[in-house]
């Protein structure tokens, strides 16, 4: 019997049973009050009179009235850039020891997002909550003795003056607790390899030496790594290498579009658990089986606000208008899309993280990621969000029994002067249908799912042009743009300029 695993499982069960959920709205008000108190003497806190906000009878309302929205470009140009000029106490006391590099999915240059010691602790606490939540899943005691493969970015952080820089997964992995290091794979040596392909090659070479029970990482890159391990060892599925693999904690994007592709890699069922770790913090986690929804972490140094995701509130660059209304946690509705705003222990304030979410269960404070504000296709009034695109692509998968782990779409005026949606679907399967037939099926699925799209198709949007390609082209595109591996998410929507670059890239790769 796995005695050590039984002890760990018992401790986790005990912790989960004695951990009080607390009252969500009170937790959030307490978090905001703590943030304001901590930062009231910073340059930001003085500029926006945090002292006066703290004296208000309704600090949440007063905070929303006094402090504007910030996206990365705005807060960096007005505040965060001062850290790099030697200033301290800018938006948070002291100077951050780390900056998380995030090129996002559309930006050409890396963003540098401050990561304080308090944020490192917040992420660690969220990780402990995730481990505690495993008591809700039916896992045998010996699972808790297996190793965990955390596929993130390089832990070889770059020293820049008085701080270190790297992707958030690399920063987090470089700060794992000492007691966890025995479980952590691929281990410190391999994790420091900067080149993604070289790191995956070493993982494949060492894979049989490890007894992996759980995987953690973004789906697109995890899928690629698993394929390389399977290919290297000439086996049919990953369970021939890691027979005790039982859990995969996905993160960063919705897992559903990748479900069919992963099922082809498993040899037996794997429990998929969704998490929400962004460069700005660990925001939510799935704490029960039978759902892909995640519970917001409301007592861990992050204060949440929500802006209705409607075209009139979204600017062309994905930012939100100054007059966009904000809704508190108490007033959200289920099954409505919201733009997520966060204020954090890293000195982000009313910060537009770029993701859209919806509440699937308000009572449990459970959400799903539905897309990105920049991945909102509304050039001709089609009002297509990523979740609508995902749903239509999944319908296509089911209709033709194929796997489509990646796709991208753009609206472009063709030579005939009419606007079309240009879709590129990544699939290795033969759908027994032409691209024209797939386009018609996709078009019909979108019409059924979105009345605005249906109206646009009868007016300004002429039709759908679809091309199926090798899904590896999406990975190579990211490599071409120096954004391969780690926290990088695949872009789903392109503007016309980016579409032309993409089409040229595909032609150069002989992919068309």
Automatic annotation (TrEMBL):
It holds the Pfam family GH3_C. Gene3D superfamilies: N-terminal domain of ligase-like (3.40.50.12780). Keywords: Coiled coil. Residues 296-362 form the GH3 middle domain. Residues 432-459 form a coiled coil. Residues 390-497 form the GH3 C-terminal domain. InterPro entries: ANL_N_sf, GH3, GH3_C, GH3_M. It comes from the Bacteria. This is GH3 auxin-responsive promoter.
